[in-house]
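User: I'm writing a tutorial on reading structure tokens. Could you give me a worked example: one chain, its sequence, then its tokens, then a sentence or two explaining what the tokens reveal?
Assistant: Sure. Here is the example chain.
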Amino acid sequence: MDTTTFTYQVIWQGVIDFSGAVPSYTFSIPGFNPANCVFMIIPTRVQDVQSSETDGSGNQKSYPYVTPSVGQVVVRPKNPSSGASTLQSRIVAKGYAIRYST
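And here are its predicted structure tokens:
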């Protein structure tokens, strides 16, 4: 990252664990605004990284579905418009909310 043209600040970090039966997470993050913030998810276990596009467990290793809004981020294990039979993510990851400015 070239920080000569902008600055950034980590305003929240935490574990996102969909290895069990977690329906979703709602994180209240003061100062979070999609206009100048990003939410990143980084896997923490090697088994959560899809080995190839043809990996049959792709949905279980996929990144969760993130819905950002002012002051909060909702993280779901699958797209909310998916059907009941759609497999959900089973990853364990680290989440970061980052605010940036120029």
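What the tokens reveal: The radius of gyration is 15 Å. Residues 18-46+56-90 form one domain.
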